[in-house]
Design a protein that fits this description.
By secondary structure, this protein is mainly alpha-helical. The chain has a single domain, classed as Arc Repressor Mutant, subunit A (Orthogonal Bundle). Helices cover about 70% and strands about 10% of the residues. The chain contains 6 helices and 3 strands. It has a 3-stranded antiparallel beta sheet with strand order 1-3-2. It is globular.
Length: about 150
C-alpha cells in the first residue's frame, strides 16, 4: 500500500469530495443552500452571534455572510438585533420559524451523514476522527492553513 504523503492527500481529497457532494445534495433536497444551512446550523448550536463571527465559522467573506443573513432575514428565519455592548455590531438570532426549520433539517442531515459514512464501523469512524485530528494539528503546526 502506498503510504506517501501525496497518496494520503489524494485519498483524503477524494473521500472529502464524495462526502461533501453527499452532504450538499442532501442539504439542497431540504430546500436550502449550503451557506444558508451552515449559518442556521451555527445559530442552532452556538446561539445568537455577531455577523462577523458567523462568517468566520462558516468561511464566508464579509460580503457573502451579509448576503446570506439578508436572504435568511427575508425568509423570516433569522433576525438581527443590536449588540448589548457594541452599538456598531449586530447580533443574529434564529426566529421561531428558523429554529423549527433548522432543528428538523439538522436531524435529517445527521441521518444523511450517518448513511454517507456507513462504509465504516463506529469504531473505524472514531479511529478516523482521532487520526484526522492528529493529522490536521500536525499540518497546521508545520505552516498549513485552517
Amino acid at each position: 500500500m502506498d503510504a506517501t504523503g501525496i497518496h494520503l492527500w489524494l485519498v483524503l481529497w477524494k473521500a472529502y469530495e464524495a462526502v461533501r457532494r453527499h452532504a450538499e445534495r442532501h442539504i439542497h433536497s431540504l430546500g436550502l443552500g449550503f451557506s444558508d444551512f451552515a449559518v442556521l446550523e451555527v445559530l442552532l448550536h452556538k446561539g445568537p452571534s455577531p455577523v462577523n463571527t458567523i462568517g468566520d465559522l462558516v468561511h464566508l467573506t464579509s460580503g457573502s455572510i451579509t448576503a446570506a443573513i439578508d436572504r435568511l432575514e427575508r425568509k423570516s428565519l433569522v433576525a438581527r438585533c443590536a449588540h448589548s455592548s457594541d452599538r456598531r455590531a449586530r447580533v443574529v438570532h434564529l426566529t421561531e420559524m428558523g429554529r423549527q426549520l433548522i432543528e428538523c433539517a439538522f436531524r435529517d442531515h445527521a441521518a444523511a451523514m450517518e448513511a454517507a459514512t456507513s462504509g465504516l464501523t463506529a469504531a473505524e469512524r472514531a479511529a478516523a476522527v482521532v487520526l484526522l485530528k492528529k493529522l490536521g494539528r500536525s499540518a497546521q503546526a508545520k505552516g498549513g492553513a485552517g
